[in-house]
Amino acid sequence: MGRLVSCALLFIACAAGAAEPPPPWAYPVNPPGAQPPADDGVPRHVPDSSAAFTLTRIRDLFDAPDWHPEDHPSMPQIVAHGRRPEVFACGYCHLPNGLGRPENASLAGLPAAYIVQQVEDFRSGARRSAEPASLPINLMTAVAKVATAEEVQAAAAYFAALKPRKWIHVVETDTVPKTRVGGWMLIAAESAGTEPIGNRIIEMPLDLERTELRDSKSPFRAFVPTGSLARGEALVNTGAGKTTACGVCHGGDLRGLGPVPALAGRSPSYLFRQLFDMKQGLRHGPWAALMKPVVTPLTEEDMVSIAAYAASRNP
Questions:
Q1: pTM for the full model?
Q2: Residues 43-55: pLDDT tens digits?
Q3: Using CB atoms within 10 A as the burial measure, which of 57, 118, 198, 245 is most buried?
Q4: What does the domain layout of the chain look like in residue ranges?
């Protein structure tokens, strides 16, 4: 009887056009009960910095660890420290230089109006994730609901004024290191070994220790399927006979046009999620309607290729 009910529910879900489940590699979720190691009280250090922070300090969401203050302008209060007890420091997740990590967005150099609109979309529910358990998205949504217009404008102006730089090293390959999820991103598994990449993007820190210390000079490597860059180039530049060329709206160099965001050099994991979410109808901001016919004909392989190629470009 239980099996019949399950089959019936599955049939109903399929008939209703239930959303396609998100690929786990693109939407990493920490395993249940995962906890960071306890703070031993020893100050940590990173290369090219005179700062020293304990793990407790590094984990304070209201005090963005700023290892390299010489690399960016003075941060506004909302970026550096947020507003206790409910608005976390923007620079904590997105880093003081705005380059972010695979689990969130790179904000450096994005139009201020675009950043403001995305916060509004999170607040209103117009922007959601295909993975309901995504803590980074849930935290962003919670912050967006309580941040003031003045705070959002100050943060947007700060990040928009930052210059993006090469942050993701894209490598084509057939095999990748075996991974697990840690800190809401993919990291190398303890057991040595490799596995076929398949139709995935495996984006990992170049130096896990520095990344976990939130060092804004510690970049990432993205392994992408062999041949994906050529496929992505064709899709991005011409549409490859199945979609609209990305450059029509995002610029021929993918560095953005007006309020339309840049794609070049951004996290391919992040870019894939946005394409996937738009195809699933989970984004309803002002530009989402224009993107819907663009993403509808795309397969997951197409989206992997587009994200890989865009990430490989200089920002």
A1: 0.93
A2: 999 999 999 999 9
A3: 118
A4: 38-312
